[in-house]
């Protein structure tokens, strides 16, 4: 049971990391240090997608599930609702290139907004 819970935690962390890669730029509106963590995460996420590399969290989850004696992804809420988002059916290298490009484009747009917003905030102060 412990290994199954740990595997579920890995899935949640994996999903949170994906959300951070895609939308983390918005956090820099609140905290100016976020880009120092976020931009390397975006580079890592794009690398994973562009190179069709398996994220280290995936084998960790699979290993924990094997230790829990589980087969496949059936049974829990996390597995039913989050895994299809992280591991969509039919994901191939072409789709991964599109996902990597989307991550970069979304972040370029978000950081453009952040820079515009911060400049505008600075103009209002002076």
Describe this structure in words.
The protein is mostly helical. The chain has helices spanning 2-23, 34-51, 57-67, 77-81, 83-86, 93-125. Helix 1 packs antiparallel against helix 3 (57-67). The radius of gyration is 18 Å and the shape is elongated. The model has no long low-confidence stretch (mean pLDDT 83).
Give a summary of the structure in a few sentences.
With 126 residues, the protein is an all-alpha fold. It has helices at residues 2-23, 34-51, 57-67, 77-81, 83-86, 93-125.
Number of helices: 6
Order of helices and strands: HHHHHH
Structural class based on helices, strands and sheet pairing: mainly alpha
Mean pLDDT: 83
**How big is the Rg?**
18 Å
Uncertain runs with pLDDT below 50, 5 residues or more? none
Proportion of beta-strand residues:
under 5%
Helix content: over 70%
**Overall spatial form:** elongated
Q: Quick one: biggest sheet?
A: none
- Kindly report how far apart the N and C termini lie: 59 Å
Count of β-strands: 0
């Amino acid at each position: 049971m412990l290994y199954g819970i740990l595997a579920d935690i890995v899935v949640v962390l994996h999903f949170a990391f994906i959300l951070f890669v895609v939308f983390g730029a918005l956090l820099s509106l609140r905290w100016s240090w976020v880009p120092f963590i976020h931009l390397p995460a975006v580079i890592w996420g794009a690398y994973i997608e562009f190179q069709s590399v398996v994220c280290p969290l995936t084998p960790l989850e699979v290993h924990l599930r094997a230790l829990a004696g589980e087969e496949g992804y059936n049974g829990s809420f996390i597995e039913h609702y989050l895994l299809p988002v992280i591991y969509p059916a039919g994901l191939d290298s072409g789709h991964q290139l599109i996902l990597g490009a989307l991550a970069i484009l979304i972040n370029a747009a978000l950081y453009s907004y952040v820079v515009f917003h911060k400049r505008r905030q600075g103009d209002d102060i002076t």
